[in-house]
Fold these 2 entries.
Entry 1:
Amino acid sequence: MQNSCKKLLILSIVIFISQALRAQKLVYMGIDHMSKGVKEAFYVLRDDPHVKQGEYKLLRQRNYIPIYKGFYKNNLKDSLWREYDIREQLIAEGYYKAGAKTGVWKYYTDEEVTDEYDFNKSQLTYHRITNTDTVQTYKIIQGRDTLYSRVSRAPILLGDLRCLTNKFIDLFKEPHATKFEEVEGAATIAFTVDEQGHLSDFHLIKSIKNIDNEAIVALVKQTDMIWLPAMMDGKPVKSICKVPIRLF
């Protein structure tokens, strides 16, 4: 009995020491991007401060509401990540492995699942039908012909416009995004979503003053968000989408 207790005590001490040593290898970093309105909180390797490791948060400076919560492993996104809107409601959650999304990700509106997407199979596994699917009319492109029609499923932006806004915020914190500092307002951009979900033919319908329109288009392209095509009669179709873009 005594030997068992000693072994358990030794094992506990070894685990504690190994965890302490592991913790000592990490250094906390808190970076305020004052002009962009966000703060990063994360850890880096003590021996290589360019390598993120462990817990990561991107926060809104005004109220410290999280935008992203997740983990890094060897400077790549890993494990569970969650994304939040300005009300701190969950927008999306799922897992990364070696920097790439993996498995089934869930997307939410008002705490209810609206979409589930399997990144391993590149397949939508669940979609909640809304008025956007059944009521709104879309411009459909069929060869050289175009028509306005209702569809059985609208084009889907995984995570909707809230994820797109968060992606802009994430891009704005980078040094090359100084051109967008102190820019306020909304633009409207139109583009084609083809049968495979690829985007093309970008053009602005409404622009923002004092900013290069091409810069806004380039910014949308950088987001690399996943779109799924509209569906008619059980088949994907090419359609034109109009999306409001709010920078701040």
Entry 2:
Amino acid sequence: MSLINKLKFIKKKLEGDDVYTFYFTRPKGLKHRAGQHGICILPGLYLPHPFTLSSSPDEKYVTITTHVNTGSRYKQKLMTMSRGDSILLFGPLFNFTFIEGVTEYVFLAQGIGITPFRSMLMYAHTKSLHVTTTLIHVDSKPHSFQKLTEQYATNASYPTNPEEFRAAVGSQKSSQHFYLSGSPRFVTSTKKLLLQQGVKPRSIHTDSFLGY
């Protein structure tokens, strides 16, 4: 397994509003687990930028899904890439992944924080993992991944405001493992909510979504 891989750009797809998915070739040396990050270096930009890999390890292409209207030079560069352009991917990184022996998962996502769960739910489906997955994805409007995640999660709900989100989280058993992905503020507040509900700290797994 190589920790540095060169990926060639294939295409981009508009998912909705300013959210795009960017497709890259999958090099033979790239081995990653569903839910992990990669650190990317784009052509002409020398500082690295973290992105969640929204693709499952079994899919043909490596994909990154992100907002593009953020003023970020990285997002602007992604939008202007041409087919065949190359990026460097360092990683994969972090253990925001399925845990051997754990069978009950609750995925809590805010907005574009759905991306690691898209990867994990797709992987659980294709590998027929014996797990129960509950997805609670809060966003002000339906996300383009809703149809896929609703299909592959054991249970899924899509609250549109904080009150509905807290109510949905409050209905979950505290014995499950909870995965949090979204803005740093979302992750911090949701972790506090779970601790108040009696969830053990070791059962809370956080992804502050470094590229949010």
